Automatic annotation (TrEMBL):
Annotated family: Belongs to the hemerythrin family.
Keyword Iron: yes
Pfam family for this entry, one: Hemerythrin
Record CDD domains: Hemerythrin
Domain named Hemerythrin-like: residues: 16-122
Official protein name in the record: Hemerythrin-like metal-binding protein
Gene3D superfamilies on file: Hemerythrin-like (1.20.120.50)
Keywords assigned: Iron, Metal-binding
């Protein structure tokens, strides 16, 4: 069973981010398959967590270069997801309780498309507007220090 299908709906037309997102989906599916197959899912989970940490760090760097405030809702969501992922790993390793891993698999599959379609799409839009090149790290029109974005750029954000 596939945990989350990679579909055109998840494509944001930003090659670096799309590749990273597709890799996330693949790792989530590998983790889900390990759970379904009844084998030790921790190696797949470690790979997913390591990828997610690097994935979010990349986006955080892009946000900083594009002028997002350090404490915006996009960053806060990343922090919450990583906190839950790390806590589920702690339960699995220290308490030998694997149920949080099963729950997290379902929650990540539901969360990720919404996050990509709202917050990541808003990041890509901001990157395009400011002429940010993720390959070089150069930003044609960086935001002025006093005009940083405090929200996520999404219309659903309360900032």
């Amino acid at each position: 069973m596939t945990t989350l299908a990679w579909t055109d709906r998840l494509v944001l037309n930003q090659p670096t981010l799309d590749d990273t997102h597709e890799e996330f989906v693949g790792l989530l599916n590998a983790f889900g398959s390990a759970l379904d197959d009844g084998v030790d899912a921790l190696p797949a989970y470690h790979a997913l967590l390591a990828h997610t940490e690097a994935h979010f760090a990349m986006e955080e760097d892009w946000m900083a270069r594009c002028g997002f405030e350090a404490q915006n809702c996009h960053s806060s969501q990343h922090a919450m997801v990583l906190n839950v992922m790390r806590e589920a790993l702690r339960y699995a390793t220290e308490l030998n309780d694997r149920e949080p891993l099963n729950i997290l698999r379902t929650e990540l599959a539901g969360w990720f498309p919404q996050h990509a379609e709202a917050m990541d799409a808003a990041l890509v839009f901001t990157m395009e507007q400011r002429g940010f090149d993720p390959v070089t790290g150069e930003c044609r029109e960086p935001a002025a220090a006093e005009a940083t974005d405090s929200g996520c750029g999404s219309s659903s954000c309360g900032h």
